[in-house]
Design goal:
alpha+beta, binds adenosine-5'-diphosphate, single chain, globular, 4-stranded mixed beta sheet, binds magnesium ion, 313 residues, 10 helices
């Protein structure tokens, strides 16, 4: 068995790369220098075994996802992530697990230039929390509250893939295209896109609890309503093939969680410019004055959805 201090020094101590992360792991607290005219963004997320991930999930994927979910929050503000803190609770000091977990975590951290600057390690049920710090130019963060009547509602990437994987795992389905598992376990936080959208988006959120649930958060914060159109929902070719009829795939896209795509509103005039960005963007509806969210089919008829998304309480 190895001790807490050994776990920290062996797996979680790395030199910081950004000069602004002045002090990292090893003291009672880390120090970040905030550059002039910037603001610090802070976000925390927790993943608990049995709640957020299935028992025996691959530890490399867990390391990735622990960080990815917090990076996604920074992306949704239009910010640049710079540093992270990691709180790790595990029943034992399983070296193989720790090694794979730290590899998954640092592979993603390095890809985004994020330093691990501190954390906490304790013994207990498997639970993982990450705090991410990001920078954004003063007063330029994209909030949930900025949506305007007439804005287009857009989403990045495709929706429903992770929810499909969750369903297949719950039903113990033997054959599943690995594409789905990868979308569930190793989501790509839209960090680049979030920053590119910052000058154009009126409101933005990352989709973690399902499109309907998260879009409604924008609507409530902005005191507006919306219509979205089911034929416009971006479905991956994999989902279209695996999940038939269309209504099933549509439900996954509307109400399934864990997509970690961005949902944002923009004035129509910016759409063609944003369509040229490397990440695919799809317009799915419009912000309206009348409060509430209407989901419409190809004939403009209103669709009723029974289960709208994931909620903890
Ligand atoms: P304290 O008891 O003062 O909170 P700890 O012994 O818990 O200090 O942690 C020592 C140092 O190691 C601190 O800098 C802390 O931020 C860091 N640390 C502890 N656990 C982790 C972890 N899992 N990942 C990254 N840094 C960690
Ligand atoms: Mg501590």
């Amino acid at each position: 068995m190895i001790r807490e201090q050994d776990i920290i020094s062996r797996y979680f101590t790395r030199k910081t790369r950004r000069a602004s992360n002045r002090l990292g792991v090893g003291d009672d607290a880390a120090i970040i220098r905030i550059p002039a005219k910037q603001e610090l963004l802070l976000s925390i997320d927790t993943l608990i075994e049995g709640v957020h991930f299935f028992k025996s999930t691959d530890p490399f994927a867990l390391g990735h996802k622990t960080l990815a979910v917090s990076l996604s929050d920074i992306a949704a503000m239009g910010g640049k992530p710079i540093a992270a803190l990691l709180s790790l609770s595990r029943p034992n000091a399983d070296k193989k697990w720790l090694k794979a977990f730290h590899q998954g975590f640092f592979t993603l951290a390095e890809a985004y230039g994020v330093d691990l600057i501190g954390g906490d390690t304790c013994q207990g049920p498997l639970s993982l929390s990450s705090v991410v710090q990001g920078l954004v130019p003063q007063n330029q963060a994209v909030l949930r509250s900025g949506a305007k009547v007439g804005d287009l509602i857009c989403v990045s990437g495709s929706l429903g893939d992770a929810a499909y994987a969750v369903q297949a795992l719950k039903e113990n389905r033997k054959k599943m295209n690995p594409y789905f598992l990868n979308r569930l376990q190793q989501p790509s936080p839209r960090v680049e896109l979030g920053q590119r959208l910052r000058p154009y988006a009126h409101a933005m959120i990352d989709i973690s609890d399902g499109l309907i649930t998260d879009l409604k958060r924008i609507l409530r914060a902005s005191h507006v309503g919306a219509s979205i159109y089911t034929p416009q929902l971006p479905l991956s070719s994999e989902l279209k093939e695996a999940s038939t009829p269309f209504e099933k795939a549509m439900k996954l896209a509307l109400a399934g969680g864990d997509d970690y795509e961005l949902c944002f509103t923009i004035p129509e005039k910016h759409l063609s410019r944003l369509k040229r960005l490397p990440t695919p963007i799809t317009c799915i509806g419009k912000i309206e004055k009348k409060l509430g969210l209407l989901i419409r089919d190809g004939e403009n008829k209103i669709v009723k959805i029974s289960q709208e998304g994931y909620e903890h309480f």
